[in-house]
Amino acid sequence: MRLLALDAATENCSVALLCDGEVVERGAESGKAHSQQLLGMVAEVLALGNLSLAQLDGIAASIGPGAFTGVRISVAVAQGLAFGAGLRVAAISTLEALAFQAYAMPRAHSQAEAHAASAPPVMACLDARMNEVYWGCFSADARQGVRAETAARVSAPESVLLPATICLGVGRGFAAYPNLATLPGLELPPGAAAVAPRAQDFARLGALRFALGLDVDPADLQPLYLRDKVALTEAERAARGAVI
Prior knowledge:
- By secondary structure, this protein is of the alpha/beta class.
- The protein has two domains: 2-94 and 197-220, Nucleotidyltransferase, domain 5; 95-194, ATPase, nucleotide binding domain (Nucleotidyltransferase, domain 5, 2-Layer Sandwich).
- It has helices at residues 34-48, 68-85, 94-102, 173-176, 199-211, 234-240; strands at residues 2-7, 12-19, 22-29, 58-62, 89-92, 122-129, 132-141, 145-148, 153-155, 167-170, 186-187.
């Protein structure tokens, strides 16, 4: 499987090339420079793999949630590259990619987990700004990498609920809102609160989706926004007591 993966939905912009199980990845914490850097990273990883777009089997695209502009860039670039090369795409959410990454992280096992038949669910969490987080809970799945246990949501941190008595946490939402780490039953592996989505995880998840026939025409690729506004009004900021 030869697959290009790209993500510009969060502050960590990254691109990866998966070729016969090996991954080459490039990334940068580039803020608002995603649009300038993304295509350069695509060209770099393709050159390192000595491949052209036409030689790929498909593209794994980040659809969000994340920053509105970044999500649009991810989807638009994936569509443009796929249309130009006649490729199909696999849609992967940033929360899925975070959960997939969490299962590869080292962690301490509690006594209760020692008796569990499988790995516990993962709560993936990103800072959504405006005093909110994007979050969702997932379980490990041998066929498709991760399986959603809850719908992806956007909510105030105090409204987050865990679906299980033991749940791993991952993502920068935990760094932005440290009180989330005190949720009963939540375990944060070392470094988990600093983790951002990586293109290599989109690539590996994308390969699994292609193998299952879950790829789509690029015209059908849709962004996952979760909310329809990018800023609070002055009245809303005053009501929340927030400084945005």
